[in-house]
Each structure stands twice: as C-alpha cells, then as structure tokens.
Amino acid sequence: MSSLDPGDGFVAREDASVYETAEPVLYEVMDGIAILTMNRPAFNNAQNSQMTYALDAGFRRAVDDDSVKVIVLKGAGRHFSAGHDIGTPGRDINKSFERQSLWWDHTNKPDAEQLFVREQEVYLAMCRRWHDLPKPTIAMVQGACVAGGLMLAWVCDLIIASDDAFFQDPVVRMGIPGVEYFAHAHELNPRIAKEFLFLGDRMSAERAYQMGMVNRVFSREQLEAQTLDIAARIAQQPRLGLALTKQVINRVEELQGLRTTMDLAFGYHHFAHAHSQVLGTGALGGHDAKTMAQANKKENQA
Ligand code: ZN
To answer: In terms of CB atoms within 10 Å, which of 102, 182, 285, 289 comes out highest?
Structure first.
C-alpha cells in the first residue's frame, strides 16, 4: 500500500498549484508593533494554505518577540481580503503542510473527509488559535472583506476600517450556512446576522460601525496612520495586563456561546458541503470564483 492510499482505495488528487509569490505574508516590526501584510494583491489577497501557514508563522514570530506589544493585520493593494482562494493558480487545497493541530493529513482522503479534515485545520483551528494569541491584534481593513476575509478580521481584537471598506458573506448562495468560523451572530445581533446572511449583501464600514462590529472608521488616506496611532497607544500598556484583559474577554465570548455556536455551525457547514457533493455539484453548490463574482455583480447592480 502506498503512503497515498489510506486503505480504502482512494488515491490522492494531484496538487497543481502554482504560486505567484514565495512571500504571501510580509512581516515587519516598527516601534513595538508587528505588521503582518497579506501579500497577494493581484488576487485581492485570496487566502490559500500557503498564506494561512505564513500567517500562522507570522503570528508565532510576533508572539515570541518580546519587543512586540501589538500586532496589526493588513492586506496589500486595493482590498483587505477576497476570502478563501477558490480559483487562483495558487489554490493549493490538495497540498500537504506541516499541520498545527493533531489531525491527520487531508490530501489522500476521499471527498467529505478530505474537506472536513482540511477545514478543521486551516480554518477552524487556525482562527481559534489566532483569536486566542495573548497579544492585542488589530485588523486594518480597506476595500473588500468578504467571506473568508471576515474570519481574519473577526479573530482580531479590534477592527479599524476605511470608509470604503465593506463586509460580506455571500456563501449562502452555495447552499452553505456562512463561513467556517461562524461568529456572525456574535459579531452582529441575531436579526442583523440573518439579514447579512440571507441577502448576502455588502455591509458598509459605516453600518458595521453602527452595529458594533467595527471600532473606528477613517478615510482611506488616514487609515494606516490612525491604525498605527491606536496600536502605539495600546503598546504603552503593560504586556501582561493586556494579555490578561484579552483572555478574560475571550472567555466572556466563550461563555456567551461563541465556541459552541461555531462547533454546531461547523457540522452544518460540512453537512452542506457533503450534500452538495452527493448531488454531484462539487463542494460549493455548483459555484466557483467566476459564478460567485458574476452573481455578486448582478446583485450589486440591482
Ligand atoms: Zn467550507
């Protein structure tokens, strides 16, 4: 039996990804502030696994560096994040990586198991790990923050947006109840969360601010300077005091049911992926990056 045959006759799908960069995340430290920049601007920072593991390494580095007090997560180019990579040449869902949780490798497993194991690791486990890292994190959001992009902003402690930023989870169109890290009904009140998901419309930075999902809104020109100013002010606080404060509030979110909600939603999410596969329409309800973009365009013109 080859190492690619898990014993039920299934053979691994071939990895055909081609990366446009060896540095999907840039890392710099300035005056106690670590800045992680998602660096796939040609693809609006679509998140492949290459980027996911680079983000994880960046967060690890920032936590390990005692000179770093605050971490800022941003995206290069016009948009913060177009979400998970569902259609660039660098889409690498059939590639193995050095995993951070104790699940087995997904690449040589069939259909629903492959998807469940992969998303358990790269979405749910990673996002929870980043959400709980002990230093304050700030998402600096411009332009699109769509679907998987929401997860990256939501795991951060503060979200600071430009006035042209928008937030959107259109994946209900795929027959799936929202992205894997299901914080919708915690980030927004339940009625607004339903509207956000049912319609899949863009939520402006201004409305997200009114709903309490975003901390501050600045003009695009002011966004970086203002974000770094807020980060610098937080960096004046004692490290342990910040860490303890963050841990307490994160536990509050858990007591409010965030973790349980997410476990429940993850099961539903994978029932939806598997249902779509049983129907023969692939895991995404017959959609790909192109059809989602077309539907989105139509909606926003209407
Ligand atoms: Zn999924």
So the answer is: 182
